[in-house]
Amino acid sequence: MSGAFYTALQSMQNDPLFSIPPDVRATIARNGKMTKVVLLGTQGLGKYLLDIVASKRHCDVIAVVDDPLSERESTYRNLPLLTTSDFLALSRQIRDLVAINTCGHEKPKQFFTRICHDNGIACINFEQAIRAFGLHGKLDCRVEDWGPEIARNATRLEALGKRMADNQSVTTLHALLTHYLTCDPSYLQAVQLPYSSLYFGSGLLDFGNQEKMVDCGASIGESLQGLIKHTQGEFSHSWIIEPDRNNLAILQAIIDGYQGTALENRISLHACGVGETAQQVCFTHEGGHGSSIITDSTVDEVNMIEIRPVDDIIDDAPTFLKMDIEGSELPALKGARHTITTHKPKLAISAYHRSMDLLDLTDYVLSLRPDYRVGLRHHTPFRWDTCLYFY
């Protein structure tokens, strides 16, 4: 493993809060749950924090900053909505203040970082906030603090690095793990590939004119478009599997657009989720990329979806199996056991939803087919879109 990973690992073992700046640690030590917090940005990761900090059981969020939105609104999620100028004025009134920079895109993130630095305002990013305020276990598993779990499984992760088939995969693994230990996104940015390279442009998988793709979590059709692009429309079949009713309407419109063309009979749409066994589960139906299975038993029947094993859905031998299903990848792989064991399709499996996905998904796939080669790529500057490739 890389030197940076080992340094970060040792630092976490010596001090679990090593990644939190001293001024923030001192402020929280003085004020505890009464620490006054301002969230910078209303998009992206900030929404996850607002869901749990509104109770004020962890800290006292007193305002949100968003300059464009503040031109139209005065509050956001029942909190005062400030301009940057308002925020600076507030920071002069409340010196013991912590700002959480929740912005994902580089330009606003750097803007707020510079503003806080130049004005002596204690500032941390989203990952640091989860660790500093002890929010682990209280958020969606997709945005938890994975650092402690990585530290506990360092030996297994070291063995995973030795399984990787190419140097770029090893480098990517080191960078991901170091990011989660340090809460420093620069490690991700050092290995990121463009989002457009996801699945088809990783440099690990080859695609011909007889591909049969199983598209689990088809969302709004990006993978279908990728298949069409990379095969020039010459492929045998694509099973598009998607449970979100909002996305299904978009996918159906895309398919309808191919009526009367050579692609018309090569695409089949399946309105369900995938898992190990057939069942009914609750689902969020958010549209886009964020929908997921939920455990809330009070959800109305209208939000229930059908789950089916991949082995029961497909009626042919696929050459490519893709999964991005918001943390349900392991049970879905178990529901594709026969397909994987018998046909050994190329696999592109998202591995950024749960802290142990990298280990658990790899262990399971190799238990079925030890002859797979294993690759790893990261396709954004954010914590999203880490993908395991088996070929």
Question: What topology does this entry show?
Answer:
Layout lengths: L2 H12 L7 H10 L4 E5 L5 H8 L6 E6 L1 H4 L4 E2 L2 E4 L1 H10 L3 E5 L4 H13 L3 E4 H7 L14 H6 L1 H10 L3 H16 L3 H6 L20 E5 L5 H9 L6 E5 L3 H12 L10 E4 L2 E2 L4 E5 L9 E2 L9 E5 L1 H4 L6 E4 L5 H6 L2 H7 L2 E5 L6 H12 L5 E5 L7 E5 L1
Helix pairs in contact: 1-10
Please describe what this structure looks like:
The chain has 391 residues and is of the alpha/beta class. It folds into 2 domains: 16-139, Rossmann fold; 194-390, Rossmann fold (3-Layer(aba) Sandwich). Helix content is 39%, strand content 19%. The strands form 3 sheets. The chain has a 7-stranded mixed beta sheet, with helices on both faces. Strands 3-4-2-1-5-6 form a 6-stranded mixed beta sheet. It has a 4-stranded mixed beta sheet with strand order 10-13-11-12. Strand 3 (75-76) and strand 4 form a beta hairpin. Helix 1 (3-14) runs parallel beside helix 10.
Strand content: 15-25%
N-C termini distance: 23 Å
Total E-strand runs? 17
The order of strands across the largest sheet is 9-8-7-14-15-17-16
Q: Which shape, going by the Cα principal axes?
A: globular
* Structure class: alpha/beta
What is the CATH architecture term of the largest domain? Answer: 3-Layer(aba) Sandwich
Number of domains: 2
